[in-house]
Amino acid sequence: MQTLRVAIAHDYVTQRGGAERVASTLAQAYPGAPLYTALYNSPTTFPEFKTLSISASLLNRVGLFRRNPQLALPLLHFAWSLRRRIDADVVVASSSGWSHAVRVGRKTLKVVYCHNPPRWLYQRDDYLQDRSFPVRGMLRMLAPLLRTWDRKAALTADLYLANSTSVAKRIKRVYNIEAEVLHPPIALSGSGRQVAVEGLSAGFFLTVGRKRGYKGTDQLIDAFRSLPEEELVVVGGSDLELPPNVRVLSDISDAELRWLYRNAKAFTSVSREDFGLSPLEANSFGTPCLLVKAGGFIDSTLEGISGIFFQGASTGELVASIRDFPEQWNEEAIIQHARHFNSDAFLLKLDNSIRGALKKKLTRQGSVLGPRSSSDTNIGIVER
Q1: Which domains does the chain have, with CATH numbers?
Q2: pLDDT of 70 over the 60 cut
């Protein structure tokens, strides 16, 4: 049986986040599959991308854009809509708003794995709250045109997948597309090397996230001002003046991150995440979570087993929840919950969805994809 030619697309590969973890998993699953992106900056993203065949757009020649993709926002749609069509049997676009416009041939199956419809167009209060006045003004001016472009791009997909129930509802509201829910995999191996972070001892609360206003990191820091007996470790960043019991870390290795997950008392977040892989990564080390009951956390957390929720996100409620957080947890039950979100399960479900979509596409076209029969739709998942 021949294996289909698969290509991967991702908005831009310039940072370390959950979407980049998923894009890396997809690319590693199909050896030799090219990865198409608008911008690629090796020093600021995961090292795994160095082993891939990456094709960036012409915008990548501008160093300022590579270092800060937000500056390229008015131009990023050109990086996809003007690009040459991809020659492959299947293109999987890992998208938060740009790569779902990737151009493909008439017989190519186009699959979009959506992390979220573009936040800067449809959740602007979240996205713009910590942006400069020029950026906010520019996006307000461009938003109507970009929304029109974005909705047309979404409708070019043969199959639309959402990473959570919350995102599927947004896709329906924004694009009127019924998206199938496929939860992303944990990509950080729990069995890898661990390196202790100097100056820390086990028993701290941990939060992980890029420095974005909607991530709620500053609210967590404010809560811990009232909790001098507890310690918070922030992986990401903050512009606040820090109390003595809060430590901010940046540019840490995966080995250090594993140690932090393993030695934390709990992972905590008040962010209304689209899905949120970090709590599950913590769970894979047996660490429970304390999370706001919202967004993708509802899909990924088994309350009472892998963590607990608090209903509101006020500082007072958060302080009370931290003080009342249980000391005793079933570590093995937490790890077992996390195992449901492994890469093999994700890729198997993706394979089934792609095969079903291929059969529908071939039936509609009344033709055969390349030299293969309509039953020859195994994409050859690599066993791990």
Answers
A1: 6-185+342-365 (3.40.50.2000), 204-339 (3.40.50.2000)
A2: yes
